[in-house]
Predict the structure.
Amino acid sequence: MIKKGVTLRGIEVFEALAGRGSVAHAAAMTGLSQPAVSQQISNLEAAVGAKLIDHSCRPMRLTAAGETFLRHSSLALAHVRQAQSELTVMDLVSLTDLHLGVIDDFDNDLTPRLATILADSMAGCRFRMVTDSSKRLLQAVQDKALHIAIAATDGDAKEGLIEIPLARDPFIIVAPAEIEADGADLLGGRTGLPFLRYEADQLIAGQISNQLSRHNINLTSQFEIGSHLALMAMVARGIGWTITTSFGYCRAQRF
DNA sequence: CAGGGTTTCACTCTCCGAGA
DNA sequence: TCTCGGAGAGTGAAACCCTG
């Protein structure tokens, strides 16, 4: 029997806090207030009888017990989310009309395969598929112009939207192959190679900017690029280095 | 010392079980 | 079936703590 006080809600809050290292960010992510997050963590720690988070440092870090608990609780949450997703798909099977948005990053590879799968599994449904930026897709779902969208998010709760996580896409540094420098050299500006950033209007630009400012890293940039593939092509030609995601990097293999 | 972030406290609301 | 009381989860306000 699971101990009294160990709740899915508590575990979800714990996972958010473990990922962000801040009660404020975990609150934004879960849609709760800061006191509620703090209370959930206290209850969880009391229930398991161990300190899971080191509250004395900023950002907060997991204790050894917290690391162990997170490893198992993440699996449990993943199973619950998977179950929710499968039930959602079962709901969709009876639909006759579906307006679906897909992030433009997936235009070439994922979208055609998704269309094939949907056509097979929802034979009686008419589809309208659009590709756009994550920001626009999320707005379209909020405006009820789309039923569902596959998009990137910053993890914060959005009014009126239900988010079902599909994948995590960590940030990575991408530099020209001929450059012999590590991440610290690039971030510290010791290579002389310019930083190429995404256009400020894009969701990923804001996420990268937040991460950098969280670590007190201030990078000036001569270039702001709207197209991901153009950005990767510029890196491949040695014009500069950039920060992108592992999915983004994989899509640029041809460079 | 100021500002941002966290915790504590007091209170409200909702849900659920027990008893009439 | 209805009422009542307890437990749990939420909030806002205020105090406290940490960092630059």
Q: What stands out?
A: Residues 93-150 of chain A form a domain with the D-Maltodextrin-Binding Protein; domain 2 fold (CATH 3.40.190.10). Chain A has ten helices and nine strands.
